[in-house]
Specification:
The protein has 320 residues and is of the alpha/beta class. The chain has a single domain, classed as Ribonucleoside hydrolase-like (Inosine-uridine Nucleoside N-ribohydrolase, Chain A). Helix content is 35%, strand content 18%. The longest helix has 14 residues.
Amino acid sequence: MRQFLIDTDTASDDAVALVMALRSPGVRVEAVTVVSGNVPLGQATENALYTLELCGAADVPVFAGADRPLVREPAHAQWFHGADGFGNRNFPPAATRPQKGHAAEAIVRVIRANPGIELVTLGPLTNVALALASEPSIAREVKRCVVMGGNPCCEGNVTPAAEYNIWCDPEAARVVLRAGMPVELVGWQLCRGAANLDASDIAHVRRLDTRLAHFAVDINRTAMESNLTQCGEVGIPLPDPVAMAVALEPGVVLESSRHRVEVECDSELTRGMTVVDRLNVSGDDRNRTIWAPAGDAMVTVVWRIDVLRWKALLYRSLSS
């Protein structure tokens, strides 16, 4: 049985990713930790609890964590996901409540209790950075760390240079990418184009006619409108479910390579940019190193996915 620890700023696409993990046979979600991001911490926590209850997984512990980035002011994305993060569906409060204690402390405990666990991050990396700052050695106990974040070698979705999760707390992202964990970076660009759920995909999900299928479409209605406004693309963009698909089925990845990835923290123009020297034009030997010491850790950057396979995995998760 594979063990997952999921850190999320639960909004519309995060919830679908949670459903995928919770409905995946052979995977046990040990805990869900919540961070401020797409929506404020309280709303993100409520959304996580609601999603778990909907999946019949109310026994999975949920821990609330950082309510702001490490050194910056909070910056939310409700314009994209709706005021409640769920397309303004305004669901009733969940019956369950979060566990006591901070998410960063829970991350340390869960990793220590389950060496070899797989960590999947769907939001800003504040909680994970705090956990690593308190106990750096946990980096060696994580089998995989799949990070939804960044926009290597392409445009961003919050500035021309940066993707939201990394931009929101670039200092935290820098800590995580340098910690020595086996990070797999699944950038925002991988949910675009054919990876969007288009009209035929949405119709297919509706025909599944399950509560989870309708939930997945309904909570993303604002995101679909925002996607058209921002990118000119017609469809539902699902970056977090794409990352979860990579976590669940590594064979979804068609092309990847290992690099030293830097995060820009000082420039306001390029704040949060994930800098990847894909061609090694800098002649930096660290771009060719299979393993590097802490401080120069290598990251597996995902460049291309099997779109049909990722969508088939999504459909299976929503079909029963």
